[in-house]
Write a structure and sequence with these properties.
alpha/beta, Immunoglobulin-like, eight-stranded parallel β-sheet, 16 helices
Length: 541
Amino acid sequence: MNYKWYDTGIFYHIYPLGLTGAPKRNDYGQEEHRIRALWPWVDHIVALGCNALYIGPLFESGSHGYDTTDYKRLDRRLGSNEDLKEFVALCHEKGVKVIFDGVFNHVGRDFFAFQDLKAHRENSRYKDWFCNVNFWGNNEYNDGFSYGNWGGFNLLVKLNQRNGEVQNYIREVIHYWVKEFDVDGLRLDAADVLDFGFMNMLRRTADEVKPDFWLMGEVIHGEYSRWVNREHLHCVTNYHLHKALFSGHNDHNYFEIAHTVKRIYDMDRSRPEGLKLYNFVDNHDVERIASKLRSGAHFAPVHVLLYTLPGVPSLYYGSEFGIQGRKRRGSDAPLRPALRLTDFANALEENPCTRLIARLGQVRQRSAALSCGDYQQLLLTTKQYAFSRTLGEETVLVLVNNDDAPFTARLSAKGDYVAALSGQSLHAKNGRLKVTVEANSGEIYLPARQAPEGHWESVQFELKSVPEENNPLASAAAEPTVKMAEQVPAGKALEEMTVEELQRVIYNKMAANGPVTDQMRRSIEENTHHGSLMNWAKSFR
């Protein structure tokens, strides 16, 4: 079977304004060619076994990149369009596909069409480009009118995605990005609040610009199959699994992870790999995995699962070094630090986190079954979890252990295997493969014919938790989360509810299905996006 490049993708994720240390505010002055500092990172990405890069946001904005002011110009804090063109060409030369952030739900207040609306009000030819424009209203900017926004922030002006001119404009932008930069796909920001007709237009545009152009959407909660289908997106972010991966280890509860995997896998049985989603353990919006894990030793089994469960694995820049990062007073800035690759020059030889990630990337590249094979659960306890991935004649076995003691299991198998992380050769007897994994670890068992020549270098993995006060990259603890509403008015429509009321609705629906854990409650409280909460509430059946 011929697979698309993204079917076997292993992603690296860069937030460029953060990594390059760009100023927080854009003064719209001279270009600063900071993106050129990313040239050496491409070889680092390849050395980790990654073959795809998600980088963004990239285009001109006033602050964090998601308040776009010019879709056709690289943010001048990063450089010029020519810089970006050269960067993508370098990635392609090294065998790395590139996807950009497509921030199409909203724009910044300096966007040309919004500036025209401010200047000409009712007479602006762009007044219908934006949602819920009310010339009888006002806002904190004293515009003399109000408008729809994203997340309650008037800094982010919501585009009217049902407007034909808006659709044509965005379609033309995508064509421009492909022609000018040769981009291979898009990560759609705030896809969970995009209009479905608009997403259908994006899918048709994707089919126009490149045969393998990939659309991956940011979706927090809900039934992912609503977005991932032939009419809309190829893939969405797997926030369900993200939450399960760290809390399942913190609580020593592999049942949570296995249940999440099965629920997502069952959303699409039409493909052997199930509903293939974009898997991650951290990103530019959520705290670093090294900060969320109560035991640093669980870094290993978490990443073994990231690279072997159904889906497309993604690694957020810097996490391969085991750095920490927590939000500070609600700010995402500590999650998006400036890093110098030279500070980690010997990481592949000396840092156990980096060595493990590189090894997992190599293993994933060796095995088509890990990318496209079906999934079967083989063993499950609170502290041990085993499964297989099978494609044709190839079956790969995976076993993880979150206990503080080694664990031995006998898994159904035939023939000869190699433990990909330790290099141990094994032979199945009487249809069983006897395997042992160390404490707080994991292993991937490849058929011997799939293993590389010689032995894999053994990884003696031990990572101790680093006190955050001793870590210059860590931040103070996050502020207390928003308190949920005590009750919800009877008969009130979801669209009319406050964030706190929507949180209560979701909590009540969860409670009706069984006990609500502290982790489940926190996942509700930490989501303060009205549109995302509304979609989450609607997803219950």
